[in-house]
Every structure is written in C-alpha cells, then in structure tokens.
Amino acid sequence: MKTTWFKFAGVLSLAFAAASATGCGAADVEDFDASQDSAAQEDGSSADEALDESMDLGTAEQGLMSCSNPDGTNSAMAALAVAAAQELKRWQPARDFVMFNTSGQCESCGGPQQAIKLTSGSDASGPRGKSRCADGKCAKVQALLDMQYEQANDKVFFQGSGSTKTLLNPGALRSRLVAKLNDQTICDRNARDGDNTACPKEEHVLTFQSSAKGSCDTNFFFKATKPNGQPLTYPNQLKNKLKFADIANPYINFQNLGGGVVSVDPTFGLNEDNTTSTGACMAACTKIAVGDVAGDCCSCGGINRAFTKAPWSAVTYLCR
Questions:
Q1: Do the beta carbons of residue 304 and residue 163 sit within 8 Å?
Q2: Structural domains of the chain, count
Q3: What is residue 28's DSSP assignment?
Q4: pLDDT digit string, tens, across residues 138-172
Q5: What phi and psi, each to the nearest 5 degrees, are found at residue 189?
Q6: Which of 294, 313, 292, 316 is nearest to 305 (CA)?
Q7: If you average pLDDT over residues 284-298, what whole number do you get?
Q8: HEC secondary structure over 23-55
Q9: What is the side-by-side order of every strand in the sheet holding 297-300?
Q10: Pairing between strand 157-159 and 165-167?
C-alpha cells in the first residue's frame, strides 16, 4: 500500500482507529485534489512541510493507539460509522436506525432478542435511513448490520497486525449495537448546543473527500458542514454523535483540527470502493464491495485464497 499522509490546514479531523495497520491496508490511497495543496500554501506551509507534519502526527497517534479487537466488534462498529457517513451522509443514528425484535438468526427472523436495523421514510428533518441512500437500501451499511446475526457466525474474520486475524462474534456485536444506540438516543433527547459533553442540536452533512494510511489502518476523510454548506458552529460536539459506535471504542479517536474535515479509520476492506490491483492479492479477510470481486485473489491470515460471496449478503465477500 502507498503510505501517504495528509495535513489539512484548518480542518476538522475525527479519527477512528480500527484494525492494525500492518498487513491490512492493501488498497492504494485516494488522493485529495489540488485544492488541498492550495490550502497548505495559504497557511504559509509547503506541500512537503504539510506531509512531514502529518507523518509526525500519524506516527505519534499510532504509538498511542490501542487497536485491540478481541471479538471483532470494535472493527465492525467503526466500519458502520464510516458506512453511515458514506451512504447516509450524516451521523444521526437515532433517526436512521431503530431497535427491533429478532430471533438472532437474521433480520427478517422474528424472536425475543433485540438488534438494530435501518429505518426508512421521512421525519421533520427529511429522508431517513434507507430513504437517504441512492440505492434505496444502503448496501454497505446493510452488509455490516447483517453481521449481527448467527448466519455470519464462525464466518467473518477481520485482518489484524501482520497475519493476525480476528473472528467476529455476531451475538456480541448485536448486543453492543443495541446498547450503544440506546446511549445515542438518550444523548440526542438531551441535545444542547455549546456543551461539549452533550449531543449537538446543530445539523450536519458529511461528504467523502479521500482516504489514506491511518493510525491503525485506513483513514477515510469527510467534509463536515451545516446542511447549507457553512462551517459547523460546534464541531467539538460532533464526537457525541458517535455514541452509537461507542466513544470508548479504542478504534475511535476524535480530533478537532478545525475547519471541517473528519477522518475515520476502520479495518481495511469494509468500506473501500472496489480497489483491487491487477496481479496483487488484497490483504483482507472480509470485503464489502458493490461490484463483483468473487474469485479475486485475497490474503487472510497470511494465506492466499480467493474471495467468495457470503451466502447471506449480495455485497459481502469472504476470503476462503
């Protein structure tokens, strides 16, 4: 992977650290356009200086990060936060997700347990849940939600440091998502602007900008603004919209660098667009891809295999 760091002059950075960097980041970095170089020049720094400073920041962050992932839920929840930003264009989980009863086997299987799923339709703020997504189903978000169920038990692995891989526990993910969505709902009910301990009332929109090597794996950068495109008034409070992914999750590291770009750092393979390289094996045990990658070479646990489509999802591929 090309290890590229960016410094963004006057930008906001939400850093989520999700799986280990070594052996996981196989996709090439998607570079920002020339406007980012201009931003560096405007604050009196050269592009090289910006790159050096960003590398220093990234190295320091990596040294401080604890990328533990014992049951895989840290990676999955960080990836869900990224997917929500990609497809829903916001972090409003209390509006876009709902708790419901299930048997724990699949989303359509009724029973006494609780899980979370996407909503649809509209409320006072406009479209919500699936109705916000261009495909009408939010394929990446749905693929991650589908990992809550026993249909994925003993099948979903996340690549860790080197050849380390972690098996996801669907039951643990389901329970944790329910608990954290409840925390988010309580926070949103008591929202107030100007209090860094509270969820903001201020609305926001997230727009994908770029991705690059992160503290633990791959940073995804999003522009965070008000719906009218103006800068957020209370950017520090945006971190409290991440309770649904668990602020205490060691894969989440919120940073406010000022101005408007947020970064998220989930396990490689769960949020990238289809970025396979000819002749190269992608270092990912699990891949979420809207396009067909079945048969493509992959590496999981240090062993080269091929992606096969998961039986429960049209966009989830397993390296086996």
A1: no
A2: 1
A3: P
A4: 999 999 999 999 999 999 999 866 678 999 999 99
A5: -65, -25
A6: 294
A7: 95
A8: CCCCCCCECCCHHHHHHHHHCCCCHHHHHHHHH
A9: 286-288, 316-319, 303-309, 297-300
A10: antiparallel
**What one-letter code names the amino acid at 18?**
A
Phi-psi sector, 49: left (phi>0), alpha (psi -120 to 50), beta: alpha
Per-residue pLDDT at 266? 75
Residue 99 pairs in a beta bridge with 116
- For residue 207, list its beta bridge partners: 223
Is 40 inside a domain boundary?
no
Tell me if 320 is assigned to some domain: yes
- Torsion, CA 148, CA 149, CA 152, CA 153, rounded to 10: 100
Q: What is the mean pLDDT of residues 213-242?
A: 88
- Tokens, residue 217: 């794996």
Separation of alpha carbons 76 and 93, rounded Å: 15
54 domain residue, yes or no = no
In a domain, 292, yes or no: yes
DSSP 233: S
Range of the domain at 211: 1-33+67-320
Round to whole Å and give the CA distance between 25 and 215: 11
CA-closest candidate to residue 125, choices 80, 100, 98, 94:
94
